Amino acid sequence: MGDNPRMTLRATIVLLAVLNLGVAAWWLLRPDAPPSPEVEAPSGIARLQLLSERPGPAPAAAERPATATPTAARSADDAGPAETEPPAAAAPAAPVAAVERCYRIGPFADTAALAAAQAALRPRALRLRTRETREGGGRGWRVYLPAAADRTAANANADRLKAAGFTDLLVVGDGAEANSVALGRFSSEPRAQQHAQALRAAGFEARAEALGDVRTANWIDLAAAEGFDTAAARRASGAAQSRTVDCAGVR
After folding, report:
1. What percent of the chain has pLDDT over 90?
2. Which three-class secondary structure state does DSSP give residue 11?
3. Phi and psi for 34 in degrees, rounded to 5?
4. Domain range for residue 195?
C-alpha cells in the first residue's frame, strides 16, 4: 500500500513529459498557414500600409524640398501681382518765363476804327489796352487856373498860389481869359500834366491844355510773344505806325 502513491506520481510525470514532447513535435511539424486574402479597397481610397511595408524610411521633413501645394498656387495666382511702391513722381520742371515785347500801334481816327483794330489784334496779343492822346499843332502846352468872378478874386488866387510856393504866375487882365491865372507853358504834355497835378495836390483847380490845333488820337498798346510781326499787325489793323514801348505800362 505504501508504494502506490509514488508509482502514481511517477506515472503522472511520465505522461506529462510525453504530452509535452507530442505538442513540441506537432508545433515543429505543422504546415504553414495560408496567407490571408487581400481585401481590395473601394476605388479612389488609398490602401493603408503598415510602416514595415513601406520601401524605406521617409525623408525628414527638414530635408524635403519646399513645394507649393496646388491650393496655395491657386491662391497666389488669384491674389494677383504683389503690390509695389509707386515710383516717386518727378518734380515738375519750373515753368520758363515767356519773353514778351510791347508795342504801340495806331493811330485810329475814331471809335469804330479802334474797335475793328482791337478785334484784329486781340488773337495776336497776350494782352492789350487802348490809349487816347491829344496831339497839338507844335505850340506846346499851358497850365492855368480858370477865370475867377472878378479881378479881386483873381488876385486872391494869385496870393494863395504864392503862399503855397508857386511864384511863376500871371493874372490875365483882359481878353477872353481875363481874371484867369497863367501858371506856365511847357513843350510837352507830360511836363504840363506833372505841374498841374502838383497844383491840384496843393488844393488848386489847375488845368493842363494843349496850345494850337489839338486833335485826339487813339492807340492800342499790346504785349506779344517774341517773334511778333509788327508789319502784319499794322496791315491787319489798318494802322499807319507802330513802335516799341515799355511793358510796365501795358497791364
Report:
1. 45
2. helix
3. -65, 145
4. 141-210
Q: Which three cell numbers stand for residue 241?
A: 505806325
127, 222 Cβ separation under 8 angstroms: yes
**What are the Cα distances from residue 100, in Å, to 223, 226, 235?**
6, 5, 21
| Strands ordered across the beta sheet of 241-244 | 127-135, 215-225, 100-108, 241-244
The angle subtended at Cα 92 by Cα 86 and Cα 96, nearest 5°, is: 165
State the Cα–Cα distance between residues 138 and 135, nearest whole angstrom. 8
Strand residues in 88-169 grouped as ranges (E): 100-108, 127-135, 141-145
Indicate whether this model's pTM tops 0.90. no
**β-strand partners of 69:** none
Instruction: Identify whether 88 is part of a domain.
Output: no
Judge if 165 and 198 occupy the same domain: yes
Q: Are 102 and 223 in contact (CB under 8 A)?
A: yes
Check: CB of residue 214 under 8 Å from CB of residue 92.
Answer: no
Q: Residue 14 falls within a domain, yes or no?
A: no
For residue 107, the domain's CATH number is 3.30.70
The 3-state DSSP class for residue 223 equals: strand
Model confidence over 63-74: pLDDT tens digits?
A: 454 554 444 444
Mean pLDDT over residues 158-169, rounded?
94
CB 193 within 8 Å of CB 208: yes
